[in-house]
């Protein structure tokens, strides 16, 4: 009789048994410039994102019962296409969160789209200061380093009393923001910024630019340095061909992807600063990252932007886990001030502008006969507390 009563009650819904919450897909959109001048950067970001999600979920690609789905879109480095693809990802694909993009110009075009759809966008790897500065809104977080973080670290590396510096940069948001930040960061070092040169992104002949730079520097007293800020194929080889040494002028630049650092091998002793080089960070995440990347990609180490993609993936998992889901308001609350692990060690999303505070690395180039590129040997780790990165938004 008791058995019959229990059966009837269950059928009538009088007694309910605990059930698992319905599983769903967590959709993460990656917008990247997979074709065009920055395609190598975009491909690295995509690989890093996949590896970051794997590591953070212990290989399950799940957060709780929910399965992660990655939606990849190629913006070709075009701002109008980037904004349209982000809108498509949010509206048509139902993306819960987005990551991207490669070009600073394209990333800037995406910012108002995130605000319009009230969805979180993690900017990676675009660098322009405006992204977490004057163009920022509360839905924007950035794991990539900013122009100011690049500038402070490179200024520390090459700026000293009595040094005169000229800059060569690309004539768009990345280059102009970067030089503006570098100029500000160079001041306290005692060095002088003597000249700024900007060239189109697709420049291949640097003769005219180099001559203007050499003319501005050659009669300066003391040490003379050209600091190059360039995304894509480095102009360093062509500058070296124009023989700046005849004027006592040295070349300097920051870190880059491994193929772009091949010319560094001809500049042993050159100093600069970098966001990532696989041999520098010492932590369990980077140990796994380097080992696993070499295993998957024919003994090739992870590169500059692979690390960035992995950091973005780990940030996304940490945020969704902490927020208990993908609701935008809960994500923002969870991410402001959030500490999370990356191949570089700890990063922290600053509450005021959502910029990820992180270490940078002052290096000196070593020419190793067994390595194709100039090896950036660590001189000093510039930790979060070593860099006073200004807050530039209007919050």
UniProtKB/TrEMBL annotation:
<feature type="domain" description="Leucine-binding protein">
    <location>
        <begin position="25"/>
        <end position="367"/>
    </location>
</feature>
<feature type="signal peptide">
    <location>
        <begin position="1"/>
        <end position="21"/>
    </location>
</feature>
<keyword id="KW-0029">Amino-acid transport</keyword>
<keyword id="KW-0732">Signal</keyword>
<protein>
    <submittedName>
        <fullName>Substrate-binding domain-containing protein</fullName>
    </submittedName>
</protein>
<comment type="similarity">
    <text>Belongs to the leucine-binding protein family.</text>
</comment>
<dbReference type="InterPro" id="IPR028082">
    <property type="entry name" value="Peripla_BP_I"/>
</dbReference>
<dbReference type="InterPro" id="IPR051010">
    <property type="entry name" value="BCAA_transport"/>
</dbReference>
<dbReference type="Pfam" id="PF13458">
    <property type="entry name" value="Peripla_BP_6"/>
</dbReference>
<keyword id="KW-0813">Transport</keyword>
<dbReference type="InterPro" id="IPR028081">
    <property type="entry name" value="Leu-bd"/>
</dbReference>
């Amino acid at each position: 009789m008791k058995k019959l009563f229990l059966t009837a009650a269950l059928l009538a819904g009088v007694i309910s048994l605990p059930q698992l919450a319905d599983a769903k897909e967590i959709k993460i959109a990656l917008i990247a410039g997979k074709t065009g001048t920055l395609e190598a950067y975009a491909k690295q970001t995509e690989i890093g994102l996949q590896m970051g999600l794997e590591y953070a979920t212990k290989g399950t690609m799940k957060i709780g019962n929910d399965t992660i789905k990655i939606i990849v879109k190629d913006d070709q480095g075009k701002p109008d296409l980037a904004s349209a693809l982000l809108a498509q990802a949010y509206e048509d694909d139902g993306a819960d969160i987005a990551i991207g993009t490669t070009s600073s110009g394209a990333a800037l075009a995406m910012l108002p789209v995130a605000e319009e759809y009230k969805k979180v966008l993690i900017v990676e790897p675009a660098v322009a200061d405006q992204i977490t500065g004057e163009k920022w809104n509360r839905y924007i977080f950035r794991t990539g380093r900013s122009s100011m973080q690049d500038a402070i670290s490179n200024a520390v590396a090459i700026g000293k009393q009595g040094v005169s510096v000229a800059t060569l940069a690309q004539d768009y948001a990345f280059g102009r923001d970067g030089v503006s930040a570098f100029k500000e960061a160079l001041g306290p070092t005692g060095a002088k910024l003597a000249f700024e040169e900007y060239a189109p992104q697709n420049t291949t002949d640097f003769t005219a630019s180099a001559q203007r730079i050499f003319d501005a520097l050659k009669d300066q007293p003391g040490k003379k340095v050209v600091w190059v800020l360039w995304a894509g194929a480095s102009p360093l080889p062509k500058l070296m061909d124009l023989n700046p040494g005849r004027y006592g002028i040295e070349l300097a630049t920051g870190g880059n992807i491994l193929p772009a650092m091949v010319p560094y091998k001809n500049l042993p002793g050159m100093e600069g600063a970098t966001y990532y080089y696989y041999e520098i960070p010492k932590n369990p995440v980077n140990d796994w990252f380097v080992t696993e990347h070499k295993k998957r990609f024919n003994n090739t180490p992870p590169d500059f932007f692979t690390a960035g993609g992995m950091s973005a993936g780990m940030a996304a998992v940490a945020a969704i886990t902490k927020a208990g889901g993908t609701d935008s308001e809960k994500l923002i609350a969870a991410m402001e001030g959030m500490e999370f692990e990356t191949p570089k060690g700890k990063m922290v999303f600053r509450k005021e502008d959502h910029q990820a505070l992180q270490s940078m690395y002052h290096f000196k180039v070593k020419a190793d006969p067994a390595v194709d590129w100039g090896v950036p040997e660590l001189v000093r780790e510039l930790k979060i507390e070593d860099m006073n990165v200004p807050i530039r938004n209007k919050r």
